[in-house]
Amino acid sequence: PGRGEPGDHRFDFGAELLALVLERAGGGWEVRVIEGMKQPRAMQAARQGDVDVVMLPNLVSEDSRLIAVRQPLRRGLLGMRLLLARPDDADRLMRVDNLTALKRDFVMGYGDTWMDREVLSELGFRLSVGSSYVGLFDMLRAGRFDYLNRGVNELGPELADPRLAGQGLVVVPGIALYYPLDDYFHVTPRRPDLARAIERGFERALADGSYAALFHRHFDAAMREARLQERSIIHVSGYPVPADTPLEAFDVLGLVRSTAVFTPPKVNAPR
Q: How many helices and strands in the chain, by DSSP H and E?
């Protein structure tokens, strides 16, 4: 499944990556994107075998009853979060220097089907929930809450679209949040052969540089524009990490463009 609503480009990279890893696995596969499904419905469709592969967050893998290919699709970039706000509130938000103040003084907008909503609520974030992805940006403009919490990989298309973040909203400078979040490919239990092919192809794409090339093509501009080296990274303590999470693969804090390889940048110390 791909986008749940028109204008939603959050799943474009995953579809291209799936095609790449299946080609690296030996080919002979066809990738067809089914639109109009939000994540809970997509997960149920995969359990029933109505779809073969879904992108779901790593924290739901244990309970999904699907076969998880435990490779973070974006090396943890989804968990590198920037704050989106109205211009009048950006100055107040950029002065936040700890999670306690952020949770106490500001309300975050969140999608009702986003699969870590209960986690963030339990961690003490004050949430205002919306049922529409596009509608959340309108709610923020209308002052229904103070900020949206967006992955670096999500913001580029959103800022380019006036229906989303491209009208009347700004990225809060100076700070970012981080927690170990990214999607895995999850495969219907009826297709263990497909899960094995995805895992095999993913490892080959990492080894031969084709994954790196795809990652850079999609996300280099977003990482440059995020100016992570100039931000203080506030780590969200207590965010759940399943026991089988390959944290060594959630290495986005060490990814910058240097020819065709990943090298570590200088990042301000967490606070």
A: 9, 12
